[in-house]
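The protein record passed on for reference:
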Amino acid sequence: MKIRTPRARIAAPLCLQPALAAMAVVAACSAQAQAQPAPNSEAGSPVQIAQNLRAPSLTETVVTATRTPQPLSDLVADVTVIDRDTIETSGATGLADVLARVPGIEFSRNGGPGTTTGVFLRGAESRFTAVYIDGVRIDSQSTGGAAWEAIPLAQIDRIEVLRGPAGAVYGSDAMGGVIQIFTKRGENGVAPYVGIGVGSHSTTKIEAGVSGATGTIDYALGIAREKSKGFNARTVATQNPDRDGYESTSANARLGLQINAAHRLDATLLANDLDSGYDNGLGKDDRNQHQLHALGLTWQAQWTTAYKTRLQVTDSRDQYETTPSVYLSETHLRGYLFQNEWRQGAHLVTAALERREDNLQNAPIDRSRSQDAIALGYGYTAGGHTLQANVRHDSDSEFGGKGTGSLAYGYTFAPQWRATASVGTAFRAPTLYQRFSEYGVGSLKPESSRNAEVGLRWAQGSNSFSATVYRNRVQDLISFGAPGPCPSPFGCYVNTARAEYKGVTFAGSYRLAGVLGGVQLRGSLDLQDPRDLDTGKQLARRAKRHGTLGADTQLAGWTVGAEVQASGRRFDTVANTNVLGGYTLVNLYASTRIARDFTLVARVDNVGDKHYELARTYATAGRTAYVGVKWAPQ
């Protein structure tokens, strides 16, 4: 009898010894710069920043921390913002490849782009990160967590990464953090674009789109096609020695209507059709066929200068099928959100009603559930002090009620310096597969966590440094145990495990003025201990040390840069028996404007052609190159 478990979504990291000293240089330079004000800095102003791949403007707003727009200067949460320029410069083909350059994130993949991918945020399980696209929740009720490989990078305009639990704001799933993905929104005028690119492994990309606004209407449309012959994902003798390539066709559409000064409607759609190869034995050309769509409709109303509301209806579908091996799973999610905000001076009060409906069809399973929630929040910002408190209660149609809460405080104790502290609880409801498959147990309890963290941040102009220390303990962790309480003789899901994710994240950026016209340094370093509290073992596919270091500058009309990605040793199994060696990768990139409306991007990843694995017996791409040209009238 074949065990029909859902195909695991697994995640892996980034070797550090060569990068540690360089990371220390970034931190030291950032601290030294306190006495050297940057030309555009506002001396004496209280500065509170979110960590970013590029130093963000403090007037920029984010929505992920509290589900309401907030200036970066008011944030207590640990947030990174990734803009479209960063995505395009990366030359990456997968979302996980971009996220791997963010502080606190590791990933793993069963081969090349398009294959099963997992993301670890602060060492937490991949299913412990809540994922939203334009406010639409993305999740799989078979494997748990988002299907990262199915989210098309070509359609993404901006990413916000929130590190740390946010159950009191988002409900189930947000035990490790939240990743919000945004598609492009139209602005005044008409802005068409066309892009083409070619790369290693016969990779080709073509994309086109247009965005704009006229009168009360704004719009954005985009379509992209990617194709690659790939490489042999598994080189072991028992697997098919073919090339495991992929094809992806994606599109997005966004339409906004400003009814009047107080009322606005937005409709968003993102869709992707992914067909990728994987190895499941000799003589088989196995294929993953993955379809993802996310649809949202939002009405925002500003009733008075102090009171505004947001009503949102969302719908998403994740369908995963394999051939010729027969497996089909479809998750359908629907959500309703009524958000209220009241601002008065330094005070912000929020109240939300939310309903989530989940359905899983994975023969013979056809089950549904719902969650109804009420959430309250209070924020205060004045005189260098920021306070944020949230409580939420979710009532699940299957297991009953679950309450969560969080409390965070930030204080600007000196110009450019800010200290933060927060505590919070979160949970994730068992998936419908974990409860109703042949390995399922209907009495499974939600996985729950308690998190505490403190942070220190400094920022001046384009220079910044931050350090965040955290500890997140998980109870009732669901794992695959021995046979007994379920029909399967092979084993059952059980609530017997406990885990702890603790560590410190350092991040910094510093501009070296006067060197080649100015060199921008950036880097991050994570020292963590993701551990099974019952066995004392290191959690699978997570390193104790991982980090990045990058530098870029302007040279003869080119933007040129280099980056290092490094990871320590990991284990491929929970028993810590199979070792995945540490590694260091060096990447180079360059871009320039080759004509008035044309931009050229070139990139070489893994310059040293380092052999490493993100999952045992699964190959990685080796040295790869990519060149792309984009036309976008200015």
